[in-house]
Write a structure and sequence with these properties.
Elements (H helix, E strand, L loop, with lengths): L1 H24 L7 H14 L4 H19 L3 H8 L4 H29 L5 H19 L24 H28 L3 H21 L6 E2 L4 E7 L4 H4 L5 H12 L7 E3 L13 H13 L3 E10 L4 E10 L4 E4 L13 H11 L16 E2 L5 E6 L6 H6 L6 E6 L9 H16 L3 E5 L5 E3 L5 E4 L6 E7 L2 E2 L3 H5 L2 H16 L4
Parallel strand pairs: 2-3, 3-4, 8-9, 9-10
Antiparallel strand pairs: 1-14, 2-13, 4-5, 5-6, 7-8, 10-11, 11-12
Length: about 500
């Protein structure tokens, strides 16, 4: 009994390590082959075990993945929300444990309904359930789409599938590749060499097809390139929302921008102006006049009052040569920008005292910001860019995507690089360049192929100036959304069910 416990503990530890491997496959480490190792390890650990054991191995995998990958929520709660370390640590562990339930139930369902180890389970049920659980995690309880396995392949040949099936399709290709490796190994173990070679050939074809898809041009340039400047003021989070810091902050952004009005667009990040629009209208008018004088447009994050309930929208405004435009944030961060079930959790609201935790979400369609020559730019605030379907469903004849963010909430952690990597995947999916403006980094200009054209060093005061090209046209992902991929997942499940006892 003791030996069995130790064996199971050892295998749970291996599952934990496999989860850490996936974090290392993603930004800022970029060791993308580890994603295949991670998924293959977990699959092997799930073979020939009961659903209960598969649940716990999946849970430990999730602890490794999310414990190493999203530990930075502790920084925002303890360092900036000033929660006691023990409470912030408990809430962080609770959050990680909740996320770990996704791979746990994935393993349970795999072994509950596909107990026999065969090719149908390995090549069909396993990849289908993996991608399905990622998709569910992107929207359930407002969603947390971090650390999808597809993000690890942003710089590999498999990113060629992103314009067709989005990051979920890249996840499918990645997990299917891992499943082929495991299946080929099992065939070799049984001395079925031909079957093993066929699996290896299928693996090679998946990667070659991905590389060839990278050669396709789904969207086309529109108009001439133009110059933009993204201001990274590097305002310390401890100072950002202090009333006495508002004026110094405004002056810093103004001074940093004054030598860059030769750019057609100057961009300040999320809540760069840390005061409601109605309180700093004079300053905004002054900056609008300056932008008009230089035939430019200023775009900045700023709170805007919601007159219906006297709360505020987390907003982006555009002023200058092309008039005034607004974007109001739709998807807020739970406990960061609003308190869920505030009627029952009101005391938590008072206890957390997070400066941005009283925003209200916007509803209805998003209007693009209009730039010169009728170029349309669609804005997203903070982690909205992490949601593939939200970006997709608001993208109507838009030429450029913009993300303004303040990742200073997470200190010197890996969160900034992860956030940027997700933006790179949105660029690939939609065939659009992305301007990524951050308070303290990583500020960047991203090509439609997901490459960093220009980037400012993180945690430094800088102004990133570069050229950007607007694009038009639609990728297959924009035309068909999730429908083709969901059909593929359904087909895989049907095949797995049909042959689960063979």
């Amino acid at each position: 009994m003791k030996n069995q416990f130790l064996i199971e503990l050892g295998k749970n530890s291996l599952a934990f390590l496999a989860g850490v491997f996936l974090t290392l496959a993603c930004a800022p480490f970029y060791i993308f082959p580890l994603a295949l190792v991670s998924a293959a390890f977990l699959l092997v650990l799930w073979l020939d075990v009961s659903p209960k054991i598969a649940f716990w191995r999946g849970f430990f995998y999730g602890l490794g993945l999310f414990g190493s990958g999203v530990y930075w929520v502790y920084i925002s709660m303890h360092t900036y929300a000033e929660l006691p370390a023990i409470i912030a640590g408990f809430l962080t562990l609770l959050f990680i444990a909740f996320l770990a339930l996704f791979p746990a139930y994935q393993g349970y369902l795999l072994n509950r309904y596909f107990p026999k180890t065969n090719s149908a389970k390995i090549l069909c049920a396993f990849p289908a359930l993996w991608v399905f659980f990622e998709w569910v995690r992107s929207w359930i309880f407002t969603g947390f789409p971090w650390l999808f396995i597809g993000y690890s392949q942003t710089h590999s040949a498999l990113n060629g599938y992103a314009p067709i099936f989005s990051v979920f399709g890249v996840s499918l290709a990645t997990v299917f590749s891992a499943a082929l490796l495991v299946n080929a190994t099992l065939y070799l173990k049984d001395k079925r060499r031909l079957a093993a070679y066929l699996n290896a050939l299928a693996l090679i074809l998946i990667w070659v097809a991905g590389a060839l898809l990278n050669l396709a041009s789904w969207t086309q340039p529109a108009g001439k390139p133009f110059q933009v400047s993204l201001v990274q003021a590097n305002i310390p989070q401890q100072l950002k929302w202090l009333p006495e810091q508002v004026l110094p902050t405004l002056l810093q952004y103004k001074n940093l921008s004054q030598d860059h009005w030769d750019s057609q667009v100057v961009i300040w990040p999320e809540a760069a102006i840390p005061a409601p629009l109605d309180e700093v209208a004079g300053f905004v008018d002054e900056m609008s006049v300056t932008a008009k004088q230089h035939h430019a447009q200023l775009i900045t994050g700023i709170p805007v009052k919601n007159n219906e309930n006297n709360r505020y929208f987390n907003a982006v405004i555009s002023v200058g040569d092309q008039g005034v435009g607004y974007y109001l944030k739709h998807r807020l961060v739970p406990f960061g920008e609003f308190i869920p079930f505030e009627k029952w959790l009101g005391r938590i609201f008072d206890f957390l005292r997070i400066p941005m935790s009283d925003f209200t979400p916007a509803y209805g369609p998003s209007e693009p910001l209009i730039l010169h020559d009728n170029i349309k730019m669609l804005a997203f605030i903070c982690y909205e860019i992490a949601f593939p379907e939200q970006v997709l469903h608001t993208l109507n004849d838009v030429n450029i995507l913009l993300t303004v963010t303040n990742d200073a909430w997470f200190g010197h952690s890996i969160a900034q690089a992860q956030h940027l990597q997700m933006a790179q995947m949105r660029a690939i999916e939609n065939g659009r360049p992305i301007l990524f403006a951050s308070n303290n980094g990583i500020t960047a200009i991203i090509s439609p192929q997901g490459h960093l054209l220009y980037a400012a060093p993180p945690f430094e005061t800088a102004v990133l100036t570069g050229s950007i090209q607007a694009y038009t046209g639609k990728t297959p992902w924009q035309r068909h959304a999730m429908d083709p991929l969901l059909l593929i997942l359904l087909s895989l499940v049907i095949v797995a069910v049909k042959y689960r006892r063979v």
